[in-house]
Amino acid sequence: MSAKLNLDKLDLDIIHHMMENAEISYADLGKKLFVSGGTIHVRIKKLQEAKVVKGTKLSADLKLLGYDVIAFIGIYLKESSLYDAVAKELQKIPEIVRLNYTTGNYSMFAEIVCKDISQLRYVLHDQLQKIKGIERTETFISLEESFNRNVKVAS
């Protein structure tokens, strides 16, 4: 992919550092990488236009915000051809924060974040099960997240 986009070592170093700390100023990042802040700005703009960089996100502690339940849902589809239609419906459920089309036992695998078990029950029973194309689901409740990290981008 990097050859196709023609990314060089500086691009990859910028991505790596920004994934570690998106709050770093372009000037400070430029100092670390021995280039000007303007160069960093131009490179970030190029990476955004190429859709390699998709904005920045604030990482919040969900537990401190009252979201005590994280669960993963394996979704069996009646037919794999229904994936796009089901994915479109699942996207309407705000508690689902990630959805993947998978191989293996499940057609889809979703991550869901809820304030409590009652909200999880509501999402599973009243929202998810009513989506046409879903045959059945299997839910896994996370007891603890040991770590969460970005992939290390090699330069």
TrEMBL record:
UniProt cross-references to Gene3D superfamilies, sorted A to Z: 3.30.70.920, Winged helix-like DNA-binding domain superfamily/Winged helix DNA-binding domain (1.10.10.10)
UniProt cross-references to InterPro entries, sorted A to Z: AsnC-type_HTH_dom, Dimeric_a/b-barrel, Tscrpt_reg_AsnC-like, Tscrpt_reg_AsnC/Lrp_C, WH-like_DNA-bd_sf, WH_DNA-bd_sf
Taxonomy, superkingdom: Bacteria
The HTH asnC-type domain, residue ranges: 7-68
Matching Pfam families: AsnC_trans_reg, HTH_AsnC-type
Keywords on record: DNA-binding, Transcription, Transcription regulation
Protein name from the UniProt record: Lrp/AsnC ligand binding domain-containing protein
Organism whose genome encodes this protein: Terrimonas ginsenosidimutans
Species classification: Bacteria, Pseudomonadati, Bacteroidota, Chitinophagia, Chitinophagales
